[in-house]
Design a protein that fits this description.
The protein is of the alpha/beta class. The protein has two domains: 215 residues, Spore Coat Polysaccharide Biosynthesis Protein SpsA, Chain A (Alpha-Beta Complex); 70 residues. Helices cover 45% and strands 15% of the residues. The protein has ten helices and eight strands. An eight-stranded mixed β-sheet has the order 7-5-6-4-1-2-3-8, with helices on both faces. Strand 2, helix 2 and strand 3 form a beta-alpha-beta unit. The longest helix is centred in the last third of the chain and has 34 residues.
Length: 343
């Protein structure tokens, strides 16, 4: 453990901040901290560890408070409710003070020992360095879902996102500041970084098995996350509705001409089945297009309400684990996110 961390009582901004969204990781928190401090200590620079508790109600916050009482490099952020992984990452970035920020999951599938390699790659002149998994998930269902998800993202969005990339990354302060200017309610960390298009590189690493437990992303949550990603990134579905509408209108016009010609030349056209099929197709298209349009309108409604992406309940930091009265935000923060601290 490195409680001093080259920081003069926390008065000097650290060189590297590590943001960890925490959800359902109470059993591995101590092990995560030990491995992080060992890996970051080898870099011989000032650092901070920001643990964002996304309100899993599994005792993680008590462990974060304990770690903050032992190590003044630890800062704990407790959200008022579960806002989701990417909102928790946003909260961590909002409070990060480092010139560089590493983002990783809490389940130790992203090895802390790989952070020095990502940081070294960033120092070569890259603003974003992704960790790229060299091994695919062993679970066949998750591998298939992941393949469908990322192929769908490429198809809808037109971006060549590799399914081997996750949130494990190191980004520069310039990227953090740009990230925090976005006001999107539905956000995806990796998609935002790809949209920003700063100088990007990657470092291969061998992912570890989950320390304990199972992923909190069930099939319904994965599907919901995929839909949010599509609606957050692109309006291509609305364009497709227009294109398909033109195609159906053209097909309908051609069919009408065919019926007129058949009537003029005395042919008897058995039209009941065709009419019913046409009505079913057009009715299905109408319902589908109305539903998709309604989803977009719902997203617009969520965005115009301008609710905060996250709300803070408590903050803990320092060697004595005391609560802060202020939020420690830089005065020039441009996140556009309302942060509330409850007493």
């Amino acid at each position: 453990m490195h409680p001093d961390n080259h920081n003069d009582g926390g008065l000097v901004d650290p060189v590297l901040s590590v943001v960890v969204p925490v959800y359902g990781c109470q059993p591995c928190m101590r092990h995560l901290h030990e491995r992080l401090t060992a890996s970051l200590g080898d870099l011989d620079l000032s650092y901070e560890i920001i643990l964002v508790d996304d309100r899993a109600e599994d005792g993680s916050w008590l462990e974060i408070e304990r770690l903050a009482g032992l190590d003044r490099s630890v800062r704990g952020i407790l959200l008022s409710r579960n806002f989701g992984q990417h909102a928790a990452i946003t909260a961590g970035l909002h409070f990060a003070r480092g010139a560089w920020v590493a983002v990783m999951d809490c389940d130790l599938q992203d090895p802390p020992e790989a952070i020095p390699r990502l940081y070294a790659k960033a120092l070569e002149g890259h603003d974003i360095v992704f960790g790229r998994r060299t091994r695919k998930p062993t679970n066949l269902v998750r591998r298939l879902l992941g393949r469908i998800y990322f192929r769908g993202i490429r198809f809808f969005w037109g971006s060549q996102i590799d399914g081997q990339y996750g949130s494990f990354s190191v980004i520069s302060r310039k990227v953090v500041d740009a990230f925090l200017t976005l006001h999107d309610q539905d956000r995806h960390y990796m998609m935002i970084l790809n949209w920003l298009k700063f100088d990007t590189a990657s470092v291969d690493y061998e992912p570890a098995t989950r320390y304990r437990g199972r992923s909190s992303y069930s099939l319904p949550r994965l599907l919901g996350h995929a839909l949010d990603g599509v609606f957050f990134q692109t309006t291509v579905l609305l364009r497709w509705i227009v294109y398909l509408g033109f195609c159906l209108a053209g097909a309908g016009g051609a069919f009408a001409l065919y019926l007129i010609a058949a009537r003029l030349f005395g042919s008897v056209y058995p039209g009941w089945t065709t009419i019913v099929s046409t009505v079913v197709i057009l009715g299905g298209f109408t319902i589908l297009s109305t539903g998709i349009t309604g989803l977009y309108i719902g997203k617009v409604f969520d965005q115009t309400r301008a609710r905060p992406v996250f709300v803070v309940d408590r903050i803990v930091e320092g060697a004595d684990g005391t609560m802060r009265d202020d939020l420690g935000l830089p005065q020039d923060a441009r996140a556009g996110v309302e942060v509330i601290q409850r007493s």
